[in-house]
Amino acid sequence: MPRKALNAHWSMLASMVKRPHSTSSLVDCIRLVRRTAIQTAVRVITTGVMLALLAGIAIKLKIFGGAP
Length: 68
Description:
Layout: H1 3-18, H2 23-60
Helix pairs in contact: 1-2
């Protein structure tokens, strides 16, 4: 995660800790969790696609000693 985005997450979390009972902090927290979940899902899907492509290339080039 880029440093700027990480700092934004930490500052948002710090502001939520300072005002834990306000409604807006709850909404901010839900938005943060949703955004983090979406980023994680995108990273997992991207990693899966990249691994599938690399495996396909490796099989195509017969790196793993596949069938002749």
